[in-house]
Amino acid sequence: MQKRRLGRSDLVVTPLCLGTMTYGQQTGQSEAFAILDRAVGFGIDFIDTAEMYPVPPKRETQGATETIVGDWLAARGRRNQVVLATKVCGRGTNDWFRDDGAPTRLTRAQIFEAVEKSLRRLRTDHIDLYQIHWPDRVVSDWGTMPTRFKPFVPAADETAVEETAAAFAELIAAGKIRHFGLSNDSPYGLMRFIAAAEAGVGPRPVSVQNAYSLVNRTWEGGLAEIALREEIGLLPYSPLAQGYLTGKYRNGALPANSRKALFNRLQRYEKPHADAAIGAYVDLAHRFGADPVTFAVAFAMNQPTVASVIIGPSGEGQLASNLAAAEFTWTEDMQAAADDLHQRFGNPCP
What we know:
By secondary structure, this protein is an alpha/beta fold. It has helices at residues 29-42, 64-76, 108-122, 161-173, 187-198, 223-230, 259-263, 274-287, 292-301, 319-323, 332-345; strands at 4-5, 12-13, 16-19, 46-48, 83-88, 127-132, 177-183, 207-209, 233-234, 309-311.
């Protein structure tokens, strides 16, 4: 795999990144170790996790994913061979992340507490890419790139971008993190952090981790131009639309041990017209003689501004079709056909 640079940083990563959000709940430690072994053995050198994981978030399991990843890094002696990314929670109401039971905010104190806990769980002295999982500010919709704007009232206690950015600068100076990124953010949020950095407050973000797939290309509506001009890498998550683009849920199917069967939290991909769009993309992959998984991941890998696509298999058996995207030839005809369906369906799953 030809590596790609993250933004203007010195981080150079593989175009596939291993996501870990199921480890510690849907995926047990032994299976997680098998996935990590095989993915890194294939050549992937980029691992992404978060203090919130595993999902769905629960008091009883919070932090288990980072612990599993940290145990694997220690057991295999791989820490210096991978780029390690994790995330701090944005504005939230859950009271189990912070020692004082406070709701999560992106204040200096909370960021410092979060990073120390992540370092301990990951069994490392530094994090290569530390990301804001979602904004502190009130936003129009989760993911902050809706197809229709929903009015909102900003909260009186929103943490200033400058305070958050300054905290990240302190962590870089202390050697606890190397680089800074955003996630689930909008053009407004990205430009605010870039502006702060240009004013001398905080580091420049090197990446944005947003949902991006055949059924959600909202990134292209405003963020892509910023990313291109400002040299920011996109780290797409859910390239398979949380499994829908595999085709496994077609015609009402509900596979045992699937995320939908276990947790029923996939409403983002069950909106009006989503089923027709998903079916059309699965059929398109078959038309080109491709596995729908490989086709969907390859689509994301071959779009402008994409740095590394986050794949998140919950079992080792799901890896092969994901990894095959690294060797898949994405053609102009495939792009044209995908664009044609996008013109028809738009973004049914923002």
